[in-house]
Amino acid sequence: MASLAGILIVTLAALALDSPGAGLYRARKFPEAERELRASLKKQPRNPGLRLLLTRTLIELNRIPEALAELDQLLETRPSPDTEMEAGRLLRRLAERRFRDLNHSDAGQAAVSEIAGRRLEREGNFAAALTRYRDAQQREPDQPGLRYSIGGVLWKMRDFEAAEKNLRAELERMPEHGMANFRLGQVLIATSREAESVTYLERAVAAMPDRVEVRRELGKAYRKAGRPADAQAAWEAVAKALPNDDQVHFLLGGLYRELGEAVLAQRELSLHRQILERRRSLAERR
Q1: Distances (CA, A) of 74 to 13, 14, 49, 162, 205
Q2: For residue 14, which of 54, 56, 211, 227 sits 20 to 30 Å off, Cα-Cα?
Q3: How buried is 32 (Cβ within 10 angstroms: 0-12 exposed, 13-18 middle, 19+ buried)?
């Protein structure tokens, strides 16, 4: 049975990955590799090889919830069959590693529930996922990442009070958890506490600089907290990274209008409409 390292070596060769982070990873300089890989992903956010290698690096750093979040993001982009196969192998290896580290008692059942919860969440069955995550948390209350998983599902179910409680509990254990900071920031925006959300979203951007959706949310927080210049900078960065993102052009259009920049506002809102029209046209042809 191939090792995790072997799987990633095959993946890197297949994708012809050329990044300073790859050399640092091979040299087992994992903190340095993470920084380089995140910098490379900022320039190439859709490079699957980079994201797979970042996932492996996070595993080596024992930051499993963040590694799983990177795999989730990769799978959400509908990758090529080869990349999807490699991501699936890595998920299975993570599960095997998880079981090897456990006793054959309640901890083993906790792992089963946690893995089942992730599958159900990916399928959109949030209530069932929540039940499995809570079962895992009851069996193994000190397992890192479970309170984040519970909080994330509760956020999707719009139970913001319970989501906040669980996300804060996760951050007490792992303050650097990028996705927990991101979700808590979103909860605070949803409950009209934008000024407070800025701190958590800034931490999320620092932990995951390649995740443009985090910068989009940070821009919303800046704008509602009365920091339009910061919101403009955040959204312009998103628009540069994702020029076909209709939402960010709409947000920028509204912001430019508020700032009295009529020409810029018209340009962004026009881009927003053009992207939506192209999308509708493509949908009608199918």
Answers
A1: 18, 17, 10, 28, 18
A2: 211
A3: middle
pLDDT digit string (tens) for 52-76?
888 888 878 877 767 777 777 676 6
CB-count exposure of residue 284 (10 Å: 0-12, 13-18, 19+): exposed
Q: What is the CB neighbour count within 10 angstroms for residue 103? A: 7
Q: ∠ CA 54-59-61 to the nearest 5 degrees?
A: 95
Q: 3-state class of 165 per DSSP?
A: helix
DSSP result, 81-104: HHHHHHHHHHHHHHHHHHHHTS-S
Residues 110, 143 contacting (CB under 8 angstroms) = yes
d(CA 249, CA 231): 13
- What residues does each domain of the chain span? 1-101
pTM: 0.67
Q: For residue 43, what pLDDT is reported?
A: 79
